[in-house]
Amino acid sequence: MEVRLAREQDYLQLAELKWLHGEEDDMDYGEKNLAGADKKIFTEEFVRFLQEHKEYLIFVAADGNTVASAMFVYMIPKVPKPNGKAKCIAYLTNVYTRKEYRNQGIGTEVLTYIKGYLAEQKCELLFVWPSEKSMNWYERNGFSPENEIFECGLGEE
């Protein structure tokens, strides 16, 4: 298993992972991610999004040519401080591992790689909004619910 940054040739598989993730959330949480969605149109839109939005770092675990797991990180630059220590904070999102690769430590391996990468970038904090189902996994991997984030909804999703 190779953990690395995604390449453009991975984009179709990343779109497939996002579709599968939507299917699971629809089943597990009663969401409606795929209601009225066309997979071909979604895939084209998703790939175009990745091509246009290079600010997302996409980390993958690849088993040969198969993307087994993917995690998206959005790095948010911090306004410089006199001590110059922290350069950014990061938001972890769209974490997904194919069913046949789960419970083998692959997600933990990718997350460990991400944390090392972000530390090298002088990133101060990595945060995530976990689902109820994933909270224990995040806690086992060093996350804690210490800080409360206030949020202000600005529209429908």
Explain the layout of strands and helices.
Layout: E1 2-5, H1 11-29, H2 39-52, E2 56-63, E3 66-77, E4 88-97, H3 106-120, E5 123-127, H4 135-140
Parallel strand pairs: 4-5
Antiparallel strand pairs: 1-2, 2-3, 3-4
How is this structure best described in words?
With 157 residues, this protein is α+β, with helices and mostly antiparallel strands. It has a single domain (2-140), classed as Aminopeptidase (3-Layer(aba) Sandwich), CATH 3.40.630.30. It is 34% helix and 25% strand. It contains four helices and five strands. It has helices at residues 11-29, 39-52, 106-120, 135-140, and strands at 2-5, 56-63, 66-77, 88-97, 123-127. Strands 1-2-3-4-5 form a five-stranded mixed sheet. Helix 1 packs across helix 2 (39-52). The termini are far apart. The model has no long low-confidence stretch (mean pLDDT 92).
What is the second-level CATH architecture? Answer: 3-Layer(aba) Sandwich
Termini separation comes to 35 Å
Per the CATH scheme, the topology name is: Aminopeptidase
Total number of strands: 5
For the record, the CATH class is Alpha Beta
**How many distinct domains?**
1
Helix content: 25-40%
If strands are numbered along the chain, what order do they take across the biggest sheet?
1-2-3-4-5
Q: Which regions have little confidence, pLDDT < 50, spanning 5+ residues? A: none
Distinct helical segment count: 4
Over all CA atoms, what is the radius of gyration? Answer: 16 Å
Largest sheet: 5 strands, mixed
Structural class call reads alpha+beta
Strand content: 15-25%
- Envelope shape: globular
Following the backbone from N to C, one meets helices and strands in this order, namely EHHEEEHEH
Provide the CATH superfamily: Gcn5-related N-acetyltransferase (GNAT)
Overall mean pLDDT: 92
